């Protein structure tokens, strides 16, 4: 084997290192699930993969023809492209690769394999084995998703053992604190906001800890327990997320909740759940776990998909909403918040809040219902609700370009919440109203319908509509066309950066813009 081909192999290996950033970023954003990662490859990386596959075939032909110097040129071109791509990805990504301990282990094993391949090629360069090694280097070098999947499967046993150690450690911490009361919160939407509301209210009376941000996976919960639960902690509020049957049960088996809140059930993650019935059964895995400890689960029965399915004879389920002993009345809301009366088992508490949107009132109600039953006084509830601040990226009001106002609802990705966010935008009277959105995701065969409905709602309240994603925007543009929305006031941008550039051209002090659902990079196309 000529020195040209060895140099080509080294260039391929270096290019593979630069390719790992994008590939690992997408693997991480897809929760390290191979099927979801491959879906991203098929949906968003197929063009590059086709070109690289052709490059592998060409490289193999040049290798067989012993045209090593042309191989070097081809591999150098690939390296140049991947360096530029890695820099661009790091600079422009919405959600950058987080260099967690898992990612570092992944990178370490990748480098070991790459160095091993190169060493073996040098050792066997004069042998037939060297040809096979070069072919393998070429295959992984050009078609990097194959290499990423190889390392993913090789690291899986180690990751499982590490996870098991952390889980057992978290269980020990919880067992050592018998006074600790664990409250689980789940739902198709509203769970994160409800968690923070409940944490603020309970903090008036108890030493309270909750999972931060959107930490709602088993390992996110375990990390919270290991880092924040102290002997003095009285309440641990645990958000629980799910994308398939058994996910909530897995978290419940770790924390063993005493009380629960189910905020909602709806069309969310239907690409994995397949049906709303499966969503319902999964969310109510929390109620099953709480019932085993003779606890109560508070469910928001104004949610139609809960009201039509739950067992009314189950005394462990506490109904919250209209017609129950926990409800709200006299709602008055505007662009700066709302005032209303909480009715908690006969006690009426007038409250005000700076939180926007009707769904925020629902979240406050269910949180206050549980808090009142734990002994938090009406005055403590009133003060806590009044002090609530908008949560990060959830109808959060900010200043924006040109002196305009921004309603940051970037973390909202459910059909009900998105429609309510648009209606909240409509409460800003005498202002030019703009929406920037890529629409909704992970709704299976209901995705087109939900995005069409979002487009119709935007047409009712918005003066200017900026859609993100050349392909993703079709359901919403179809909706806008169906009602004759002004095409001169409709824009389609390939990215959020491009959308903000469009917006900046007409933003002023009389403009308010709603940023609705800021999708991660693996969904933008």
Please outline what is shown here.
This protein is 53% helix and 15% strand. Helix 5 (101-123) packs antiparallel against helix 7 and helix 18 crosses helix 19.
CATH architecture heading of the largest domain: 3-Layer(aba) Sandwich
Silhouette: globular
Main beta-sheet annotation: 6 strands, parallel
Domain count? 3
* Class from secondary-structure proportions: alpha/beta
Using only C-alpha atoms, the radius of gyration works out to: 27 Å
The separation of the N and C termini measures: 43 Å
- What is the topology, as strand order, of the major beta sheet? 2-3-1-4-5-6
Number of helical stretches of at least 4 residues: 20
Q: Helicity, in percent? A: 40-55%
Question: What would you give as the CATH superfamily of the largest domain?
Answer: Mur-like, catalytic domain
Strand % is 15-25%
CATH topology of the largest domain: UDP-N-acetylmuramoyl-L-alanine:D-glutamate ligase
Q: Count the E strands.
A: 15
CATH class of the largest domain, named Alpha Beta
- Unreliable residue stretches: none
Mean pLDDT: 89
SSE layout:
Blueprint: H1 3-29, H2 34-44, H3 46-64, H4 68-92, H5 101-123, H6 128-142, H7 144-175, E1 181-186, H8 191-202, E2 208-210, H9 218-228, E3 235-239, H10 247-255, E4 259-262, H11 270-273, H12 276-283, H13 285-292, E5 297-300, H14 304-307, E6 317-320, E7 326-334, E8 337-344, E9 347-353, H15 358-373, H16 378-387, E10 396-399, E11 405-409, H17 415-425, E12 432-437, H18 447-461, E13 464-468, H19 474-482, E14 490-493, H20 496-504, E15 511-516
Parallel strand pairs: 1-3, 1-4, 2-3, 4-5, 5-6, 11-15, 12-13, 12-15, 13-14
Antiparallel strand pairs: 7-8, 8-9, 10-11
């Amino acid at each position: 084997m000529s020195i040209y081909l060895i140099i080509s192999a080294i260039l391929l290996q270096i290019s593979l290192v630069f390719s790992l950033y994008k590939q690992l970023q997408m693997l991480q954003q897809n929760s390290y699930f191979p099927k979801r990662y491959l879906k991203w490859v098929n949906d968003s990386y197929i063009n590059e993969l086709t070109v690289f596959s052709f490059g592998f075939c060409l490289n193999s032909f040049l290798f067989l023809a012993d045209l090593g110097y042309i191989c070097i040129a081809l591999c150098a071109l690939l390296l140049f492209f991947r360096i530029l791509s890695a820099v661009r990805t790091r600079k422009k990504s919405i959600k950058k690769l987080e260099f967690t301990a898992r990612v570092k282990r992944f990178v370490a094993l990748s480098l070991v394999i790459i160095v091993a391949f190169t060493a073996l090629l040098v050792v066997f360069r004069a042998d037939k084995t060297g040809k096979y090694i070069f072919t393998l280097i070429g295959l992984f070098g050009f078609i990097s998703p194959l290499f990423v999947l190889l390392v993913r499967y090789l690291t899986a046993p180690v990751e499982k053992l590490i996870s098991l150690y952390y889980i057992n450690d978290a269980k020990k911490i919880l067992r050592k604190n018998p006074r600790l009361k664990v409250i689980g919160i789940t739902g198709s939407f509203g769970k994160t906001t409800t968690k923070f509301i409940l944490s603020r209210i309970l903090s008036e009376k108890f030493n309270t800890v909750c999972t931060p941000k959107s930490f709602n996976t088993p390992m996110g919960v375990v990390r919270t327990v290991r880092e924040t639960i102290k002997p003095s902690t009285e309440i641990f509020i645990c958000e629980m997320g799910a994308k398939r049957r058994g996910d909530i049960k897995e978290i419940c088996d770790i924390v063993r909740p005493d009380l629960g809140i189910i905020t909602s059930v709806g069309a969310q993650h239907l690409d994995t759940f397949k049906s709303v019935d499966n969503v319902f059964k999964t969310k109510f895995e929390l109620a099953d776990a709480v019932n085993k400890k003779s606890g109560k689960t508070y469910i928001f029965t104004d949610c139609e998909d809960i009201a039509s399915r739950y067992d009314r004879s189950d005394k462990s389920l506490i109904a919250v909403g209209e017609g129950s002993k926990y409800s709200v009345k006299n709602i008055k809301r505007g662009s700066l918040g709302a005032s209303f009366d909480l009715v908690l088992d006969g006690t009426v508490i007038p409250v005000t809040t700076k939180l926007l949107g009707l769904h925020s009132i629902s979240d406050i109600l269910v949180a206050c219902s549980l808090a009142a039953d734990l002994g938090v006084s009406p005055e403590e509830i009133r003060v806590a609700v009044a002090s609530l601040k908008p949560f990060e990226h959830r109808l959060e009001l900010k200043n924006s370009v040109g002196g305009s106002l921004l309603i940051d609802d970037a973390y909202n990705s459910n059909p009900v919440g998105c429609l309510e966010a648009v209606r909240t935008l409509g409460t800003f009277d005498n202002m030019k109203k703009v929406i920037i959105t890529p629409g909704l995701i992970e709704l299976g065969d209901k995705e087109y319908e939900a995005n069409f409905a979002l487009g119709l709602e935007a047409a009712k309240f918005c003066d200017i509509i900026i859609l993100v994603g050349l392909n993703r925007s079709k359901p919403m543009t179809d909706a806008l066309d169906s009602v004759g929305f002004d095409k001169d006031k409709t824009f389609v941008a390939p990215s959020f950066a491009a959308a903000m550039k469009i917006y900046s051209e007409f933003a002023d002090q009389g403009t308010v813009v709603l940023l609705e659902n800021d999708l991660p990079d693996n969904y933008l196309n």
